[in-house]
Structures are given as C-alpha cells and as structure tokens.
User: Fold this.
Amino acid sequence: MFLKHLSLTNFRNFTRLDVDIPRRVVVLVGANAQGKTSVLEAVYFLAAFTSFQTHADRQIINFDEARNNSLTVTRLIADYQRGNSKHRLEARLILEPMGVVNSQRLRKEVLLDGVKKHVSEVIGHFNAVIFVPQMSQIIEGAPEDRRRYLNLALAQSTPMYARVLSEYNQALTQRNALLKSLSERGGSGDQLEVWDDALTRLGAQIILWRIEAVQQIERLASRVHHELTHGAEILRLSYEPAFDPLPKPNGQLGLKISTIVDRSGLELKEIQTSFLERLRGLRNEEIARGVTTIGPHRDELRFLANNIDLADYGSRGQVRTTLLALKLAEVSWMKERTGEWPVILLDEVMAELDVQRRADLLKYVSESEQVLFTTTDLNMFSPEFIQNVDVWKVESGRVEK
Assistant:
C-alpha cells in the first residue's frame, strides 16, 4: 500500500495543497510551525479518521477560514494503491451555521471511491502508523491513553472492530443512564437485562480481539526491543481486562504485575457467558453506584521491562526505546494482518534518538514501501541516506520539492 497523491483544502495552515508522493522515503524539512507535522497529521487522519494531535476535529479546520466564513469545508483526499487496486478516499469536515446566532455545527463525511460511507465501514482501508515523541503518554499516561492506542491500531487492522466498539459504547451509555435512574428513582433491576446482553455480547468480542492483538504485538515488540537494548532488557505487554474472563488461581483477587497470564485459549462464548454472570452478580452494587464498573471501557495495558512497570519507574531512555519498539512492531503486525505495508509517518523522531537508535530505525523502515519523515535539521540523517530519498522543504504552509 502506498499513497500516490494528497490533496488538502483548509486543513490547519494549508489553504490548499496538492502533491504527488513517491513510493519511497520522503523527508520534509523546515523550521517549526511551518506545516510539516500537519502533512503527517492529514495522512494519518485519512487512516484513522481522528487526529493524533487533538480529540476535537474542529481544531484541524483552517482557523482563518473558519473565522471569516459562516460555512467552511475542510477536505482531505488521498489517492492510493492497495494491492493491485487504485482507490480514492475523501474526508470532509463541514462547519456550517445553525439557527442560533453565531452558532455552528460540525459534520463529518467520508467517501470511498466517490461513495459516502460510515466511518466504521472505511477505517482500515488505508493504513498508516504514526510515531511522534509526545506519544510517550501511551506508556506514561492514563489508562485511556493506552486504550485509545489499542483501539486505533485494532480499528485499522481488524474488520468490524470500529463498528463493534461504537455499538459497545452506545450500549454502555444507555446502561449507565438506566443505572443512574434506578439509583435515583428506584425500579426493577430486570430492566438491565437487555443492556446486559448487548454489553456482554459486544464486550466479549472486544476483549477477545484485544487479547489476540496484545499477544501478537508483544511477540514482535519484544524481539525489536531485545535488539535495541542488545539483550539487556526483556519487554512484556501485560493486558489487564477490567473483566478478566480467566479465573484467578486459589481465589485471589488480583495477580502480581509480573505474573505471565495466558488467555490465548479462551473462546468467545466462554468470555460472554462469564461476563454476563459477573454483571448480574454486580447488579446491586452497580445500581447503588449508578455506573458500569467492569468491561473493556476500563481495561488497562502495561509495559514491563525486566518486570519493571515503565509507567511508574521507567527512565526517559527506556520509555523512548520501548515506544520505538512498539511502533516498529505495530508496522510489522499491521503488515501481517492486512498483507499490506502501512504508510509510516515519523515526526521529529531522529532528534529524540542517539546515533545507534537512528541507524536501527532507518534499518527497520528501509524494508517498507513508503515512509514520511519530518525534521528541522537534515544533519540528523547521514549523507548517504539523504542521497537516496526525496527531500521537500515546508515553509508557511507550502511544500516545495
């Protein structure tokens, strides 16, 4: 898979951009705040339909256009090849006036080959993996940061994941609303049955997909990490589902973080049945609290180096190395899952790495089909490397080859 042409309209500081992208390595060079990262953000948006910079789509709309016009349309178009087929993917963000004075609403439209689709139908058709230094929150941040990482990776590589996750969140919202009502006004807990069934059916599938994904990514990431640390550290990914379908040994309430747990033999029906039983057992407690206390929305993922939790005790170097191993593993995992190389997007990564890590990174990405780097300093790359890539200058929202 590779991107052939990128077109942007009113995206960030780009009023208009049309550029053909070669099937090789491209280095975008320029000073800060010129638009380099925005190019990578646009490419990733067309893969995940969300930004790695912000959770609010409104923020990626060109500020001047939105301020000066009551109707603003931001368009991102990717012409790309997947296998032997050529496709066009378009995302539109439409900021339009509402009935209230000075009020606007934002609509998102997605088109694949000219046909409007729901986001959940299109996500994963074009794949990209993004690596930016500030992604250290995947390891050091809150549990929701790690769940978001898992969701974005799975949505691109697993058909139906995005739709099942969306339906789960809708069922969770309805169940929480009913729990709150029962807590405040009373009523029969039997009303929860329909939402219990929906939550466990969808949640069991999410849990199973996450179990498989974490095991597969761990296998790849630990190998890369072993090479990057020259065998000094062993990396593990510990998936901790808020509802754990695996019974605790000897009636324990929890396990040590260093305990290796194998959930690979679990079946979907087994997870669903035990999840439903657990929800029913918690019914009175959840009604009293007015909220759903277990399920994939509260899952945790931990990163361990030599059995040390990197979120709490990892050095900056350990976190950086682990993140690099994780992202390189994600590339290989996505290739295994889809049969296609994702487009690799690397934002100011070289400045965060020492000389050896830079060489390791360039070695790993050299096997892929298309890579986009950004940098403020070409000296971060060896002269031999620069001679064999395309270098583009980015300045004031313009790209020059």
The radius of gyration is 23 Å. DSSP finds 13 helices and 15 strands in the chain.
